[in-house]
Amino acid sequence: MSGCTLCPRACGADRSREAGKCGARDVPRVARAMLHNWEEPCISGTRGSGAIFFSGCNLNCVFCQNYDISQTLSGTEADDTRLKSIMLSLQDAGAHNINLVTPAPHVPAILRAVRLAREQGLKIPVVYNTNAYEKAETLRALDGVVDVYLPDLKYVSARASERYSNAADYFYYASEALKEMWRQCGELVLDLEGVAVRGVLVRHLVLPGSVDETRRVLDFLSENFCAEIAVSLMCQYVPMYKADFAPLNRKLLRREYDRAVRYCIEKGFSNVLVQRFSSADRAFTPLFDKNLNEI
Hints:
There is one protein chain. This protein has 295 residues and is of the alpha/beta class. 31% of the residues lie in helices and 17% in strands. It has helices at 41-44, 67-70, 80-92, 107-119, 136-140, 158-165, 170-185, 211-224, 254-266, and strands at 29-36, 49-54, 76-77, 98-101, 126-130, 148-151, 189-190, 196-205, 230-234, 272-274. Helix 3 (80-92) crosses helix 4 (107-119) and helix 8 packs parallel to helix 9.
């Protein structure tokens, strides 16, 4: 892949010879593939989500919980054939879906692997689990390939996105990306087991000292989508990686989360997932020292 412009960084790297700004090369690296039971209930279900954790990321969030893979090229190279085999293995293990975690740098490989997997019997939904720092035109290539979009809408203000993720233009791109995801998949649809089979579920992690940012996110969703858009309002923040400065160097306060939840209710959202406050625990962060053969 020469002159890479897949994501908003548009770094122009020749990824056949060097890593892009995201740290990724042409062939994706997978840090872990597993049955993941700690996603939203409608994603993990009863048997687990078939999570494929890619290494590399086009954001540089100072509080990243997966920093040991997002900021490195750890893991095992997985070409189209290997990725296809991983997907089919997860399906055979009982996964409700294929959950592509941090997929933005790997869209061409994902497209090829999903098509191969479907030709060989992949029937479960494909979930695109993204930080939402995406180009809408790149997402258009996934129309008909992705069944469920799981974007994490982090911020609206340029100040917060620059300070915390080194991307002042985050919302400019994320807002358009969400509109494209909605165009493709629309409202969240669940099967008889309560597991998502199609649609958009927007995540938002409430950060310490940032309830006003949460209000801005909810205002955007309210003004641009129907009240039925599915929202996952998360309180699981734990200081990690480079979050050693105020206010990120502490956990979220219960009163902050309560204020965020109340505002969500006031805005009239009718399909909202909230978390237990005990979710703010490092124990829920996956380990990435597993061999891919252990799926």
